[in-house]
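Input/output pair, single chain:
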Amino acid sequence: MGSEQVLDITREGLKVALLLSGPMLLFGLVTGVVISIFQAVTQISESTLAIVPKMLAILIAFVIFAPWMLDTITHFTTQVFESIPSVIR
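Output:
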């Protein structure tokens, strides 16, 4: 196994990890900004007001993007398993 193949697999794995985490992180970020603005305007400093909506937004993002995420990780895993014979040589 050459270092070039290891780097290719690692690069593709990192790309897949970023793609899979992106939608949930984006939903959490947008929700956090909206809640922070709401807290600043109303001067409410309740910590659960910041955490619970973020968790719900991330859960909603997971439900929405789960089929795409499953397809992406399945495709990556299939590619890795199919490349095993060429890596062993």
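The radius of gyration is 19 Å. The chain has a mean pLDDT of 90.
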